[in-house]
Every structure is written in structure tokens, then in C-alpha cells.
Request: fold
Amino acid sequence: MNAAVRILEQLGKLDRRLIYALVFLATAIPLILNIKLPMPVSPEVKSAFEAVDRLKPGDVILISTDYGPSSAPETQPMLEAILSHAFKKNVKVLLMTHWRFEGLIMGIEGIDKVAKKYHKEYGKDYLVLGYRPGGTAVMIGMAEDFRNIFSTDNAGKPLDSYPIYKEIAGDDGVLNYKDIDLLVGLEAGSIGNFWIMIVNARYKVPMIMGTTAVITPEFFAFYQSGQIEGLLGGLKGAADYETLLGVVGFASKGMVSQFSVHVLIILLILLGNLSDIARRFRG
Amino acid sequence: MQTTLPVLLTFIMGTFMILMFFMPQFANAESLATRWTTIVWGFALLLGIDSLILGHLRKIRKGGAQSIHSWGLIIAFFATLLWGFFAWWKYGNPFAPQSSFLWMFRYVYLPLDATMFALLAFFIASAAYRAFRARSMESTLLLIAATIVMMGRVPLGGAVFVAFFVAFMLMIGTYMLYESTRYTGFDRFIRIIIGLLFIGVLIPLMNPSYAKSFANFIPGFADWVMQVPNTAGQRGIALGLLLGGIAFSLRVLFGIERGYLR
Amino acid sequence: MMEILGIWIAAFLTLAILSFLFGDNPVYKFVEHIFVGSSAAFGVLVAFNQAVWPFLQEGLTTTDTFLKVTTYIAMFMGVLTLFRLEIMNFIAPNLTWISRFPIAFVTGVGTGIAIVTSIHGFIFPQTVATFLPLFENRASAVEIASNIILVIGVLSSLYYFYFSMEQKGVLKGITRTGMVIIMITFGAAFGYTVMARVSLLIGRIYFLISDWLHLVR
Reply:
């Protein structure tokens, strides 16, 4: 027993560089081995999938890519999965950003990549509105007419010069929230809350959220209240959506690394606690 | 006047925006205010950058071994700025697909931003190992909830959770049985009972089908934890925060809080 | 060719940042400063390219007089904001107070929006969503238990932060319940935070082993 206690105490004094090395290996090895494991789909992701699945050809999705490179491993697979789903259903897509500009660059990369795969044409099937700072002011400014905030698209051409605009704008030729059938917020910050509190609450736009895992727990309150129809949380959310779509993307591949690092962290926490107990036992 | 007029402007604009919520027929006026805000915000993005540059220029003037890093910052700033404006002039948009500036953004800026945050994974593992101690009921509850969520949200997490559960129960049970040897009478008896209970709970899990059911239960249980107790807590915390936020916003509106003017 | 060069540069920068794990070192510090400098420059570029220039262009090209005048007024207010720049402390220190007007305008708009949004967009719908049936004929035991836990959880966690009255007796019991719910919430938040940070690391390592070293197809 004393030997066990001494060993446990020593296991509580591991060098931090050993821990870093273990974390690195736990992440890298599953990726190199390219393992994929099945896992059950979360109900809130299934709801989000169904919200997109209910759309009909010609319906309009507005996607807001409010994230930066630091959240891209989680939200970029979500973007590509949702775009694949939308383009498969011949839904029109509008893309915008109003939190971090980098979100627009990554959004454009994602939409161009997926649009090419589904032979979708810019200006006809999808449009990139661009980036405007202002947060809540942008959301309210778009309520009357998107052109109040985005008079041109990201390329600098007037919004109403594109065929997609003429197709999706209302009978009065004005594009606003009434013409949006689903809003998809891909969020890494608090701006996602305002999409729900302003655009859903005031203008009744149906929405689903794809959030980085750090802020996902907050959004369950919105999901439970019905303010959002679905929620994709972190890499797991992206992987679940890919599973429902029947594709194996980055998120699905990354989940095995996620598993191994989670196990490692829990083992480390347990070791630390056992070492603490052993130290107190000897003391 | 230098303070009174801006405070009055805050009050007028704040009250205006609140009234516009109740008067949708004046949506034009509301749109105008929000459009102006967007334009002003664009200029406000420039604030703070000059302090950064001036601060590092001061470090360069002071000299020393560390000034080389400040040189790196200043050179990177002006090089990026000039490159960007050149690309803007040449292609009409610095982030045009064919522009070399986009190449720099993709292969220099994005990897740096992403890697800075990726470091946190290492630190969270190290910090959890060193500092996460279940010394009270509260911290134990936190640890159990974290374990259920972390294991419930990954493939094979249920199976590993069962393994942890078995190891944990065996450990506590064995410890209690060992501890009982140091006591006599009722104290010894109660420790033996607790130890046997902890180990006894594992007996059904010796049946593989029960163990599998328990493993399959964990992801669903993690879903329930997120949708019920987590939602309750998040809602309670957020309601409290927002009520406080409204109180603070009213203080700003009425000019009691003036920190934003400094 | 440019793509291969870019990948090697990105890999070098990634490893330079990761070198911080072995301790603060000159390579990490230098690369960090380059990041901060280029980040600041991007901020300036984005401000001009994505915010200032489109609106200025619109103001210059539109035939609508009202839109032209209002855009110019807003641009003027934006320029007034620049009196808050630190450099103005050297150029015109007596005029920095001018920047208070556009700041006050933006603060007023933001505050007004925040008040109505918080009440209409969160407090009302979330309160309504908490009014759940505690006993229902056709609901399962789990659903009934979940509803009870949700209602009690929201009320007790809200009460946990109420400090205007001494929490004793029955009230202490409510506070303890709130604390339990909050600990579960924080545990879930910790689990998700770990998941988020690990995901970022997965992204970077995937880049290194796939795009750079080609160990994965």
C-alpha cells in the first residue's frame, strides 16, 4: 500500500513537457491512422438538419460567417456541410459577415469550393454580400432593405444588378428579412445571441446556429425555448451534420483525435486527484 | 458643455432607438441611425492601432535587446499596409482571388492566428492536471458533469466512461475496505458496508449486455445534461446578467455612467 | 509553386508559435510581434476597404440627395472619431473632446438597442419557455422530471445571485440547489471548452501532417 501511495504521489509530478508531448501524440496519431468511428447524432443537430432539409428549391438561406481562423476548425466544416446540403436542394445562398473580417475570407473560400462541386454560379445561385462592422446596427439596418447596409456585393457591384437578387427580392424589388427562409449563424462570439434576440424575436426569421464549442452551452437555452430550430455545437456538431449528410469530412476524421485527447485529459485529472489523495494520506 | 452635450446625445439616441422599436412606421429613421452607426464604427476600427504603433516606436527609440521585436512589429505593420493598398490599387480589392496579398493573408496571418489559440489545448491539459482538484462537493459535481459531457460527446466515449466508472468505484471501494482496518466497532462496520456497496454496484456490469447498455446510455445522458440542468443554469445566469446589463444601460442612458466618454 | 512556398512558410510560423511550449524564446516573440503588426495593418485595411470606402463611394455616386447628404454627415462623424487617436494628443490636445460626439451617438444607439433587445429578445421568450407543465397525463416520467428540474433549476440559479437579503433557512436550501445546478452548468461548460481548444489543435496538427508533411491523404 505504501508503495502504491508513493507511486501515485510521483505520478502527480509529471513534467509539463511530457503532458504537452502526450497531447500532441494523442491528437496526431489518430489523424495519421485516419480512423473513423461511428457515434450517435445529437438531437439538436438532427433538428438543424431537418430545418435545412425542409427547404424547397428556390428558397433563400442567409449565412453569416461570424468567426475567425481560431474557430475555423469547428465552424468551417459546418459551413461546408450546410452549403452542400443547401446546394443539393437548389436553395439560393447569401453570405455575409459582420463580426470578424476573416470570417468573410473563409466563408468565400468555403462557398466557392462547395459551389464548384455542385456547379453553382455566382450571381445566379449564390451571392457574397460582404463584411460590414456594426453588430446590432447592421442587423437592424438590414431589416428594411439589405441595400441600406450592403449597397454592393463583395466585388463592388450593385446588389440589384444580379439575377439572384431579382429572383429572391419581394414583389416590391426590396430584399429584406421577409425574403429569407432560414438564417444560419456560424458564430464564435456573442454576436450570435443578437441574431436570435433581434432578427428572430423582432422579424421572426427562422434560424439555426453553428457555434464554436466554447459558447455552445449558452445556446441550449435558445434551442429549448424554440428561438432557434437547431444547434450545431463544436466539432461534434459538424461531425454529426456530416454523418446525417452521408459524407466523411474533416470533422468526422477529427472526432477520433477528440476522443483520445478527452480520455487523456480525464486520466490526467484523475491522476492529479489521486496524487493529491495519496499526499494527504501520507501526510 | 464638452461632457453635457455628448451625454445628452447619448440620451436622445438611446431614447430614439427605444421609441423606434414601438413605432415600426418609422423604420426608415431607425435604418438611418443604424446605417450611420455602421459608418462611424468603420472609422472606430482605426482607434487603438495608433497607440500600438506609437508604443513600439517609443521602445525602438529606447533601444535595447528587445527592440528588435518592436522593429519586427513596425516593419510587419507597414509592409502589410503598403502591400494591401498596392493590391487594392491593382485589383480593385486587396482580397481579390488573384492578389498576392490574399496569399499573404492565407499563409501568414491565418496560420498565426489559428496557432495562437491552438496552444490553449496544451495549457488546458496541463492546468487541468495541476489544478483541477475534487476537494469539495461542488468541485466533485463539476468534475462529474465535465466527465459525462466530455465522454458523451465523442465516439466510444460511453465505453471509456464505463471503464473510468469501474476503476473509480473499485478504487473507492478498495480504499474504504482498507480504511476500515484502522477503525473498530460501528465506524469499521460502516466503512466495510460503504466499500462493499461501491464494489457491489459493479456486479451487474460484469454482464456484458448491461455494460454495453450502460455505455450506450452515456451519450443520451450527456444530451440530457446539456438540455436540462445546463439549460436551466445558463438561463438563470443569462437572465441575471441581462437584468444587470439593462440596469447598466439605463445608467449610461441617463448619464450616470460616463466611462465611455473618457 | 507559390502554394508550396506558402505552406512551408505557414508550417514554419506554426512551429515557431508552438515553440512557446518549451518556454518563451526569441523566435516565438519575434513571430508574435509580426502577427500583432500584420493584424493591426489588416484592421486598418479592412476599416477602409470594407466600411469607409463602400459608403464613401455610395455617397459620391448616388443621385438621391437625401442619401448623399446623410452619408456625408455620417462620414463627417466618422472623421470626428479620429480625434480620439493617440497621435491627436500631440497634434491638437485641446480638440480630443470632439471625438465624444460620435462615440456618444454610437453608444446611445447601441444602448437603446440593447435595452429593448434584452427584454424582447431574451427575457420575455426565455421566461415564457420556463413556464413548463410540471404534471402532464401523456408525458413520460423523464419528461416530467426534466420539466421540474428545469423550472426549479432556473429559479434557484437566478436566486443564487440575489444578495440583497440574507440567505438562511429555506432560502439557503434554494441557494444550495442553485449552486448544484450552476456547478453542473460549469462542468458542462468546461467539457465544451476542452472540446473547443482540442478542436483548434486538431486543425493545426492536421495542417502540419496533411498539407505540409503529406502523411495523410
Summary: Residues 173 and 200 of chain B are 9 Å apart (CA to CA). The mean pLDDT of chain B is 89. Chain B touches chain C through 118 residues (CB under 8 Å).
